[in-house]
Amino acid sequence: MAIRHGHEPHDTFVVSIHVNAAGSGRMWHSATGWCAYTFPGHTESDKLATCLYKAAQRHLPGHRLRTDYSDGDPDYEKPFYILKHTFCAAVLTENGFIDSEVSLAFLESEEGKKAIVALHVEGIINYVEGR
User: CB burial class (10 A; 0-12, 13-18, 19+) of residue 54?
Assistant: First the structure.
């Protein structure tokens, strides 16, 4: 989803919402967790990702949050195409694993759907209000 909350290019940001997979084929895997990715380097995207992580902590209690603090913030950094070729703050979220029975059951539940939506809405609102 791309959101524009003003009239200037810097007022635009992207949140690309995904579900992860630990393998390929028809086997179940034990991988679980929520995480976010930004393009390598310190950018405005890191602020948006941090807001999403804080919201995930509130809306996914008891669920694993996958983090990488090697650069001082919780998000993973990868040069994914959408992150590399988007010229505004951009975050890609991975909202569990589709090939994990536990994760998939949560994602398909009403509780899971509401939690994933709520964490994105709250994270985005906190990012916009903090700018």
Answer: middle
